[in-house]
Amino acid sequence: MILVKKLVKRFGPLTVLRELDFSVAEGEFVALLGPNGAGKTTLLRILATLSRPTSGLVRIASYQLTQAGPELRAQLGVVSHQPLLYGDLTARENLIFYGKLYGISQERIQEVLELVGLGSRQDDLVRTYSRGMQQRLAIGRAILHNPKILLLDEPHTGLDQEAGEILDRVLQEVALEGRTVVMTSHDLVRAASLATRIDLLSRGKITASTPAQGLSSGDLVDFYRTALAGGRGKA
Amino acid sequence: MLVFSLLVILIFNFALELDLQARTSLSAGILWATFIFAGTIGLNRSLAVEKDRGCLDGLLLAPVDRSVIYFGKAVGNLLFMLIVEAIVLPLFSFLYAFNVFQPGFLLVVLLGSIGYAAVGTLLSTMVVQARTRDILLPILLFPLTLPVVIAAVKGSQGFFQSLPYEEFSVWINILVAYDLIFIAVAMMVFDFVLED
After folding, report:
1. Between B54, B59, B64, which is nearest A80 by CB?
2. Does residue A157 lie within any of the structural domains?
3. Which residues of B touch A7 (CB under 8 A)?
């Protein structure tokens, strides 16, 4: 579903992604872990067609990224660091706005609002929402059009326990529906509980990969530290 | 935008004590200076609103050709300018004793506004990521829009001075050409302007 080969991304003199190879099969849920500055957000922005690679091959579904257009973007759902929501609109109005871009019915909008637990607050302005509520609405916006591929950039950041559990439930339902998911995270345990595979991105390259099932917390920490140490060595 | 425009018109009216001849030759410049300054304020705000909460990324993710986003923003900016102009022009007409409700003059206003909004939307998208966008936009915008400002002033002057159309039609032609060229250029480069 996603194929990345020798991907390089530079911002001026700074090379963020260094001939990165990465692939995700259809229906797979990959958690992408790594330290700050490893290139996780940059990789996700490239996959989301928000950033152009310096060089390398990126293929998503059957589309080459350099030829990406509306057909590819229709298959993507993205949750980024910012909520991508208009604060002066209500939750419902935000989803209606995005829904019009994707040709979504009112019934689907109501369904999504209920799914993310915002049915009772749908007519409140988004700027009155807590961080957790905004993030839930952002998830709703991302799944509104039933995308085949979900790209989530640290979706649990800033969420309280309840909001995090709601988000986990939504992501588990999404995964059960067979969507392809790439999620960056700093939360090892949570990532392992949701994902089918964990990749470690360090200094612009994937340095380690492991199936997520059956890993204890200790295994996870060992995996992370070992893989990071290996990544530093390669730098 | 609107309050600023009204203030500028009023300040110019009281600050410059113009006789009839001076008024005829300067009024077009005063009017377009007002429109340009107000338009710049609007341009800065229209993309800043999208950028500050990441909503621009939300638009870029939409399954539409990205030139549609450009047209949407440009039409929005143009509409704001036209609404301000629709309110300012009657006041201008009253203060400066000109009949602004002439079809030819209104066409000049429309063409000038289209050109300014077209280029302004493209440039405001380019500078929206910069911290100094409030300063950067006018610095980039004013040299590029000089042709449309000059042509709009000259065209407006022609109507204010009741000159034969043939004497100032070249300026109308320049406005039309400018609008077409820069709309085409913006459509071609907008994709590259948006991506990191």
Report:
1. B54
2. no
3. none
- Domain region containing A193: 1-75+180-235
CATH no. for residue A39? 3.40.50.300
Residue A82 lies in a domain: no
Contacts of B63 in chain A (CB under 8 A): 70-71, 73-74, 101-102
Give burial (CB, 10 Å; 0-12/13-18/19+) of A40: buried
Rounded to 5 degrees, φ, ψ at B101 are -90, 55
pTM: 0.82
Number of domains in chain A: 1
Helix (H, G, I), strand (E, B) or coil at A211: strand
Complex ipTM: 0.85
d(CA A70, CA B70): 15
Residue-wise pLDDT tens digits, A144-190: 999 999 999 998 887 888 878 888 888 888 778 888 999 998 888 88
Q: Could you report the per-residue pLDDT of B77-101, keeping only the tens digit for each? A: 999 999 999 988 988 888 887 888 8
Domain annotation covers residue A204: yes
Residues in contact with B165: Cβ distance below 8 Å, sequence separation at least 6, in sequence order: B104, B158
- Domain-embedded: residue A11: yes
